[in-house]
Structure prediction request, 1824 residues.
Amino acid sequence: MHMIEAVIKPAALGSLKKRLAELGILGMTALECKGYGKQRGHTERYRGARMDVGFVPKILLKIAVKSDDLDKTIEAITEAACTGKVGDGKLFVYELSRVIRVRTGEKDNDAL
Amino acid sequence: MHMIEAVIKPAALGSLKKRLAELGILGMTALECKGYGKQRGHTERYRGARMDVGFVPKILLKIAVKSDDLDKTIEAITEAACTGKVGDGKLFVYELSRVIRVRTGEKDNDAL
Amino acid sequence: MHMIEAVIKPAALGSLKKRLAELGILGMTALECKGYGKQRGHTERYRGARMDVGFVPKILLKIAVKSDDLDKTIEAITEAACTGKVGDGKLFVYELSRVIRVRTGEKDNDAL
Amino acid sequence: MRWIARGITPIALIVLAFGLMWMPNTILAQDMATGVAGEAVEVVDAVADAVVGEPQQPEAQTAPATPIDATFMINNLWIMIAGMLVFIMHLGFATLETGLTRAKNTVNILFKNSMIVCIGILTYALIGFNLMYPGFGDTSLNLIPGWLDLSAIPGFITVDAKDLATQMGPDYNPGYTWYTDFFFQAMFAATCCTIVSGAVAERVKLSSFLIFATLFVSIAYPITGSWKWGTGWLDALGFYDFAGSTIVHSVGGWAALVMVILLGPRLGKYNADGSSNAIPGHSLTLAAIGVFLLWFGWFGFNGGSVLSADPGLVSLVLVTTSLAAAAGGVAAALVSWFAASKPDLSMALNGILAGLVGITAGADQMAIWESVVIGGIAGVLVYFAVIAFDRVLKIDDPVGATSVHLVCGIWGTLAVGIFGAKAGMAQFGYQLAGVAAMGAFTVAFTLVVGLALKATLGLRVSDEEQIEGLDLGEHDMAAYPDYQQTTIKSYQLREA
Amino acid sequence: MRWIARGITPIALIVLAFGLMWMPNTILAQDMATGVAGEAVEVVDAVADAVVGEPQQPEAQTAPATPIDATFMINNLWIMIAGMLVFIMHLGFATLETGLTRAKNTVNILFKNSMIVCIGILTYALIGFNLMYPGFGDTSLNLIPGWLDLSAIPGFITVDAKDLATQMGPDYNPGYTWYTDFFFQAMFAATCCTIVSGAVAERVKLSSFLIFATLFVSIAYPITGSWKWGTGWLDALGFYDFAGSTIVHSVGGWAALVMVILLGPRLGKYNADGSSNAIPGHSLTLAAIGVFLLWFGWFGFNGGSVLSADPGLVSLVLVTTSLAAAAGGVAAALVSWFAASKPDLSMALNGILAGLVGITAGADQMAIWESVVIGGIAGVLVYFAVIAFDRVLKIDDPVGATSVHLVCGIWGTLAVGIFGAKAGMAQFGYQLAGVAAMGAFTVAFTLVVGLALKATLGLRVSDEEQIEGLDLGEHDMAAYPDYQQTTIKSYQLREA
Amino acid sequence: MRWIARGITPIALIVLAFGLMWMPNTILAQDMATGVAGEAVEVVDAVADAVVGEPQQPEAQTAPATPIDATFMINNLWIMIAGMLVFIMHLGFATLETGLTRAKNTVNILFKNSMIVCIGILTYALIGFNLMYPGFGDTSLNLIPGWLDLSAIPGFITVDAKDLATQMGPDYNPGYTWYTDFFFQAMFAATCCTIVSGAVAERVKLSSFLIFATLFVSIAYPITGSWKWGTGWLDALGFYDFAGSTIVHSVGGWAALVMVILLGPRLGKYNADGSSNAIPGHSLTLAAIGVFLLWFGWFGFNGGSVLSADPGLVSLVLVTTSLAAAAGGVAAALVSWFAASKPDLSMALNGILAGLVGITAGADQMAIWESVVIGGIAGVLVYFAVIAFDRVLKIDDPVGATSVHLVCGIWGTLAVGIFGAKAGMAQFGYQLAGVAAMGAFTVAFTLVVGLALKATLGLRVSDEEQIEGLDLGEHDMAAYPDYQQTTIKSYQLREA
Ligand SMILES: Nc1ncnc2c1ncn2[C@@H]1O[C@H](COP(=O)(O)OP(=O)(O)O)[C@@H](O)[C@H]1O
Ligand SMILES: Nc1ncnc2c1ncn2[C@@H]1O[C@H](COP(=O)(O)OP(=O)(O)O)[C@@H](O)[C@H]1O
Ligand SMILES: Nc1ncnc2c1ncn2[C@@H]1O[C@H](COP(=O)(O)OP(=O)(O)O)[C@@H](O)[C@H]1O
Prediction:
């Protein structure tokens, strides 16, 4: 099993969720986050002063998938989240050693 | 060392924390998150229109444990967070390659 | 490639970001979180009642680095975030199996 | 089917009320449209034509046919403005109660507070006003003279035999017109319900609460009110309550107390060992805005209760009101500073309200120093009352309505027997009698209605709904969809 | 260079206006400073010296030279206070519109609303007041008598030949001084613009909107207004609009409707299949605060429109206004409860406003029961209007301004022909004529200005700016930098 | 032990003040309760019995024994209402200051603002009112005639020998009763302290601030105020300050300036290289609400300073006040639009306040165009003043109180010598003298008290407390426990 952590633009969440649903992936966890990268933040003003806001609002999406589903899921996310503009985001994938469903105690692939 | 990421219902946090304290696990990091899964979101209304809110507020709890403590911690979390209802959440476990305590520079098991 | 997850004090973010920029590390993702550990929370009052607030506001910083950069990044973070007081935070490091840049589809080290 | 169980009763009730309101009046109303209102309108036209359209044409000025007495105009103007100030108290209550409760129940609280004002004004026109100020109509309905007089009910506000002309000028009352009278009193009426609204917040079922509120504001409040302000038996006895420490505040407080007991505490409020958890509200800023608006509105509440623009009396009342509020705020802040080592804003705000409630019964009777003492004592009282209700009596009142309105309302009423021009043992006795009588009636009424509702519709939402929040449960809405709420808090620790 | 495209036009316009305002007047103004104002000041000094400095020295009291008629003082005082109440409506609109839109557009909305008040008052002094209440000045500018009379424009408010003394006392008008007249009317004027502001929120270009608002408040509103309140042709015809259901509200509503159509819906509002997404506002608390403040201000809006402190009329108007608001709120709440199984706070709040708008045209003409019926119908109307505009007509109006102000404004205007002392077929015809004439003019004006702006500066911000929020796009500011915003919401699902 | 260091001093002081207030008066008070208040109450009873209880019993009407002059009633009514409007300015200040500071200091700011009002009213009754308007009492306390007259201090407001009857009618003053006078002036008094409160926000120690505020409002403000409004030497000289551009605003501004310098900037405000970081407030919505409420209250602040309901003067003042505010808002918005390429809401809001402060000294002296010019210049001034204080002088004033109240207060005071009926070199000189004299006294007073506090209790909270927020440090409370705060912001980058 793998966990995909996708940092995406907030506006991409809708289409991404729809796309994943089509793949049959119905579980995910989303967090508000702020990213710092090639996409520069903007300048804000306040009472005559300027300030550089480095961090840009993003969504961090965590999707645990069976290893078999990994490639197609990655592909789906990449497609759905891509606008071709700086700041589209990144995917980080790591291996999970265990998954447990709290309600039933099911384990690993059964819990996904 | 392993990191346990538990997606739980907000109302379960209190009892879970208490339970972990009994086990002697006194460090954890909690994040607000929104989950999407078998537990369906609710319908909201606004000025006469309906809308389906897919995401449900959850807490994402990160608990790093020594590998020896892993099983009993998982068990404790599962028990404390389980209400038997859809949406109780999931545990994701992965291996940590390093842990460092910033203040002292202690490493790995010493830092936990 | 490794992911460093650093739980730090909010006030340390500025200097840490500056320090990482000096190292040439320009990507990171930050999340609001609340930590529980040796640093005890505070007591709040409300309408004559006291309550113990166990969780302390922290920032969870995620920084994916090439494995070659891991050591120096850890060192930099540890230095920049250290005030010597309880609650300075912890670093958790785990291996990434893949990294993908959404915009370009670049993979792994190229994506960092 | 689900909404029937939840929604049909209040709807039926309100529809019925509307029906009752219009049906007997439609025929009469026809006359009125061409008669009563028609007359009014002729005057309007005379004035308006002369005044409105032609500001640039001085030659068109014709003074109103009958010049109205200037003193009457001033008195009337002040009472109208006072009514507006009392209206703004409803915004004060709405923001205070919203601020002192959790974000997940905000829509519900705002809905309740908005509806109370609307229902209060409508039912007061339908029945409350006449029930509270009887004296006309069918004397056979004067069931227990001085105690229960229903004689005014059959006549809706504008459709009795009274000649409108006499109602609109000094012949009705040296202070104001009939409409002004209704306007000012209607704004008062809804206040007592709002007090209950805060105390039952965060777990009461919306439909049940609205039924209770409708009955309370249209029946119970006018009946107790008429005992004093309707020149009833307590008035005859010598009971004094200038602007309603008891008639409005302690009555509202009693109802709140009974409802809170029937409802039980919020989930997570009390632990197995009996200890109490604080459940902080979501915005002390809103709470502070509410208190300032309430203070502002209280200038009309107390100042308008002079029922004329008498310069000496109204200004005295404004000064005693302000000093009592100030003393209450400082006293509560200092007590909390001493008792808990740090000053508690929520207590200081409660202290200001306590001072205001405390001075209300005798605002026109007190010298400056007495208003300071009364307000200061109220501020101390409210601090210990909050703690006693919360921790000793295990009364879960999220906004402290019982402490502020019940405890300090009683204190203020009794203070008229201790301080000021009326002070004396006899007066103290009358005050006690008034507090007790109105309290007893209100407790009985609330118990009956509350138990009936509990047995039928139920008073309390389900535990799931409480956890999720009443905004979703009762309204399917979220008050603040753009803000990330935080659920990681301290008292969850103890909720276990 | 970018700000030139965005910013220079409104600036140029406003600078020009300021220039126009001062230039012709500077010479005259010198006289005024020592003449007009000088005279005023002598009176001031007489009173002030006697009154201000020496509150402890009763012997120094000298009554003002000429005793002013008490009735005049009272009337004037009430109209001044009514003007203040109308002012606070602007805060009501600001909080209502802010609350019903997303957090990322808050700075923009607050900026627009603040500027509308400022620009409205300034341009009304410069041109609007005289355009609306003509009758003096160069008769050669009376282009189409009764329809378009520019004769008053050349004279700025204080610099015409009129003797100030006559403007300050009962000789000008039995109700108020010239300054009071201006103050009250200026506060009204900005209101109609604010209605547009809410409807176009979240995607309109700031500079274009400000140009439109300036032209609308200084030209279009006074012209239509003068047809009735300036004793123009509609007044002569028999059209009746007591406090502006049409002159203020439906006129503002028409402008809002045209602008919304020119602008198009917000991004993500309508799906490819034509279905509509709800885009909830960020704070129903702010929305509720706004509605309470609007109700409060409406006491001045309607009550002040009596243009005197006539006790009977003003108090009647306060009562009809309150009952219509209450009925509208209850009706909309009940309809939403029935139709959607749970009561909708946003609809209940809209219902209160609907009742207020509905009663405005005939607040002085209705009996109590009629005001309840008019308000109740308005509350029902607004519910279905919101849904019809949103889902059938695909008009994206974030705050429901068209439903509240246009639909209920028309309803209220027509209701004068159905209910109350003026009811009758002929009156209904006049009302229809008034609604149609003012609507036609406003639609035409808005279309011309709107299309001109669309062709030049553009009306709509870029899609990127909409997604990012207008606060960053138009102002480089964030309204709530300390709160974590949440972007994980439902309707993003459908935005795809 | 810790709270002793922090909390005991202010408590001791306030307790002492309360003691002083009651002790000398308790004996006299007994007389009062049966005498002074008793008399008042007899009148009350006469009126109230006639009016309150029996709205339905017209036969019971008995007019008040002595018919009160209608003009007196109107004047008095207006001053009372003006006092209420000034009261609501305190809510305006509270929301403005809260909005312009960070969420973690909200409880502290609300606490300070609530307490200032309470303490201000209490101490003004205790000492301030009599100190400011001397003329009675022990002439031996008239230390430096016209400069320092303590003669009125021994007599608390209601307990001197003056016959209450004369204080309650036109014999006291043609405009209002003694109570009205106190009410209006007391509401003013607290205002100047609130100005300081905003400037020192986010790092001042609560106990020290409260001590300073108590001394400032009860001693310093009345002394400088008496020089003009107490018919002191500046009044004799010819200095003119209609409603307090200097007496309230620049005096408050000087105190703010001195305190800010003594305190030093907030942590993270200035970088090692001397550059300045913006520290945005947490809610521009609250700030905008505050500005609208302040404008609303200013109608009472300026309009009430006419000290009568004189139709011409009061309406003139309302118009000049509104136009100056509007011009200030537009001017500041345009300047920020030009200077920074995008319009700055926080500056536009400051501009409105600047216009209001600017017109205050001469609101009754200016023609329309002059009020526009004065307000417009104030709007430009405030923009550059904010930048100059922030970046050149390194004065860290979170809400811009020094720019708005000090700079524009001085400008407005001097403007009386440049524009309007009093314009002239001599008058300009008097104005300069007034500004300088009051400024010098206030600076000296604030320096002495401020340095004394700095040396003893300390003025500034610890750096840890600043980072954590004063809400936790001073109050152990959180203002918004349900919202997730965000700490990931830009300016942290530079805090390093
Ligand atoms: N090394 C990294 N570690 C963690 N998060 C990163 C890293 N690099 C980028 N990110 C996240 O990815 C987001 C997008 O990266 P950015 O460089 O702005 O765009 P792009 O990759 O499309 O060029 C950033 O806002 C940040 O949240
Ligand atoms: N594949 C997944 N990846 C990430 N998070 C998931 C995944 N599946 C479920 N979750 C998280 O777990 C929560 C509970 O899952 P859900 O299916 O609703 O309940 P249950 O597992 O009890 O049946 C979800 O709200 C979501 O946050
Ligand atoms: N076992 C753990 N798992 C996850 N997070 C932890 C763990 N232990 C500590 N933390 C995080 O690290 C933060 C700092 O730890 P703390 O013990 O307070 O300070 P220090 O390590 O400096 O003594 C905590 O607030 C918590 O967020």
